[in-house]
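User: Hey, quick favor. My workstation is busy. Could you predict this chain's structure for me?
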Amino acid sequence: SFFFCSVPTHSQTMLSRTLFWFRSTGWTVTSTLPAVCTARPNSRHCFRGWSDQAQPVASFNTQTATITARAASPDPTAVSDDTRIAVIGGGAMGTLLAARLCQSPASPSTLKPSPPSPPSSWGPFFRDRPPALQTLLVTNWEKHRLRIHRDGVTIKTLELTSDESKETSVATGLCCISYAQLEREAASAGWADVVFVLVKATHTAAAGRIARHLTTSGSSALHRPPPIVVTLQNGAGNKEVLLKQLARGLTATLPSAVVLAGTTSQGARMDGPGTVVDTGAGETLLEDGPGAAFVADLLANHVGWNVRTVSGGVDKAVWSKLVVSTAINPLTVLAHCTNGGLTKTPWCHALYAIAEETARIAKARNIALDLPPTKDPVPCDREFVPPQSGAAALALHVARCTAANTSSMLADVQRGVETEIESINGFVCREAEAAGVEAPLNRALLDALRRVQAGSLRTPIAHPADVLPSDAS
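Assistant: No problem, here it is.
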């Protein structure tokens, strides 16, 4: 499509206003000849396939004072070199995702590290850097931010069955900012094309406020495709909280963000500020819908994750994750072990029983799960007990693939912060009550973790039977 605008040559004011309009609505205006200015969409408006071709897509002739522009055709499945990505949450998974994006081919790790402290103005964050997947990590962890600004992110990749580092790399060029500073920066409004939310479920509302600032504010949001917000958090109900936060302050003229929910069994843990350990390759499930192909391409081809889209909503993916997380997360707290420690007796009995109970509750809520075959082809040792159900096989598979991982719930207990037990096992207990079925194992784990957080139950416990009904251990 073309548009043509004629401007009187004697009207310098109108000329200035016209060029200002181009700049303010996403066009980069440059002078190629004394009499000709050319304009092209800048990076934030070229994402998801908006072609930035070699020939000018708009030209302004200062002799005749005419503007001719041609808009490119959008391809909603393509990732541009200039895609702007924000990751909210500086924990293990958020840091790993942001660092992997900085290491992608479109965002080489040869970029210079950011200065020791964030600059006072927004622009210098990405000044003088080559076209790349510009990645912003939003976290309130100050020591983490300062270490990343100084040294980049150190990524350790572990062997599957051990805690020994197989590979160490450094991702530089990642910019970090706190929630408060981000909201003070007016130029950051509407900055992001894609926002990944990877905070604790208890912090989803605050993350939603930041996502709203990054996606639905600013005049630039009027002139681009709707941004995408992706939650890969633990627990359930996070998408609904984000939608509620994003809806606040919207007007009819601002495009609402597309919100996609997903789950991931990718393993990661923090090894101090600025250092993250990639502890195992899991599967990432993403609900199908507008923007899903783009996000899947981004995660698969630029991050290197195993990604699969799920049709018919994300409930199936969320409950598949709950089958695993209701068992692994609280049990690693009680046993005070890595995920791999649950694959041996007596803990594997509890692992299987809890996963099976959660799967029964999903069935009572009319959720059809895609579970693996019950036969396990790889026996471990004398302490290995093969699973007898698809739910148990799924929990075992994830525990093995992330054997060296410290679960997020155990990490929370070690740091003395609130866990996600209410949005994981607590959610399953509430769903069981609504379906009119019993959930004795999930209820026992919920009560046990509440006691751990209150300081009335010391861990590790000697045997799962100390807190669970005897038939589960």
